[in-house]
């Protein structure tokens, strides 16, 4: 695939909401949505796609993915949790996200937990993952090209695209399944305590 570097550039992999971009004051739902729309609009697949909606936030609240809000306002802690939910929802079910975040929510409300430090660690790891991903996708594209050259077919460009898609989805499934197993462990620990 000749255009793999162009593809990587269009992914906006460095696009994360940082602690510095989060206001220290409580916000209304519309303000939260506006922050997410402005930050992640370049990640949209098409113009009609919604990054975050009132319905999504209400569903997260009803599903208890984050601790209750006060006076219809969301704190910085809520914003961090919504950002984590936004990142996880592409691969995990709402049920799994709830299990993953349940103890963090408890720690915030009961222990005065500093979620900023946890979120900064997540951002650091995301940056490290981005570097590994770029190297891995370039290596995968090269391997796909080698495999397609063995096929000696006139539709080699299409076959490269198809095999790369299948390979990337395969890797995505491995990562998702590993995350689900870890969530199962988190859920089992909660049931036994």
Tell me briefly what this model is.
Helices cover 69% and strands 0% of the residues.
Instruction: Determine the strand fraction and express it as a percent band.
Output: under 5%
Total number of helices: 7
Number of domains: 2
> How helix-rich are the residues, as a percent range?
55-70%
Q: Rg from C-alpha positions?
A: 20 Å
Given as residue ranges, the uncertain stretches (5+ residues, pLDDT < 50) are none
Estimate the mean pLDDT confidence: 93
In whole angstroms, how far apart are the ends?
51 Å
Named CATH topology of the largest domain = Multidrug-efflux Transporter Regulator, Chain: A, Domain 2
Any idea of the CATH class of the largest domain? Mainly Alpha
Helices and strands, in order, run as HHHHHHH
Please tell me about this protein's structure.
With 193 residues, the protein is an all-alpha fold. It folds into two domains: 4-8 and 119-192, no CATH class; 15-113, Multidrug-efflux Transporter Regulator, Chain: A, Domain 2 (Orthogonal Bundle). Helix content is 69%, strand content 0%. The chain has seven helices and no strands. Helix 5 (94-111) crosses helix 7 (156-192) and helix 6 packs antiparallel against helix 7. It is elongated.
Give the topology.
Blueprint: H1 4-10, H2 29-40, H3 54-62, H4 76-88, H5 94-111, H6 115-151, H7 156-192
Helix pairs in contact: 5-7, 6-7
Pfam families: DUF1836
Protein name: DUF1836 domain-containing protein
């Amino acid at each position: 695939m000749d255009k793999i570097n162009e593809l990587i550039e269009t992914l906006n992999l460095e696009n994360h909401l940082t602690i510095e971009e989060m206001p220290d004051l409580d916000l209304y739902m519309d303000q939260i949505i506006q922050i997410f729309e402005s930050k992640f609009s370049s990640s949209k697949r098409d113009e009609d796609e919604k990054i975050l909606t009132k319905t999504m936030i209400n569903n997260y609240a009803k599903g208890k993915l984050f601790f209750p809000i006060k006076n219809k306002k969301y704190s910085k802690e809520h914003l961090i949790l919504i950002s984590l939910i936004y990142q996880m929802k592409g691969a995990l079910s709402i049920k799994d996200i709830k299990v993953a975040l349940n103890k963090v929510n408890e720690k915030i409300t009961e222990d005065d937990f500093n979620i900023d430090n946890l979120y900064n660690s997540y951002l650091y790891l995301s940056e490290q993952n981005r570097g590994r991903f770029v190297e891995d996708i370039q290596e995968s594209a090269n391997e796909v090209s080698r495999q397609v050259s063995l096929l000696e077919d006139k539709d080699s460009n299409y076959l490269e695209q198809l095999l790369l898609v299948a390979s990337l989805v395969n890797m995505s499934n491995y990562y998702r399944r590993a995350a689900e197993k870890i969530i199962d462990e988190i859920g089992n620990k909660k049931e036994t305590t």
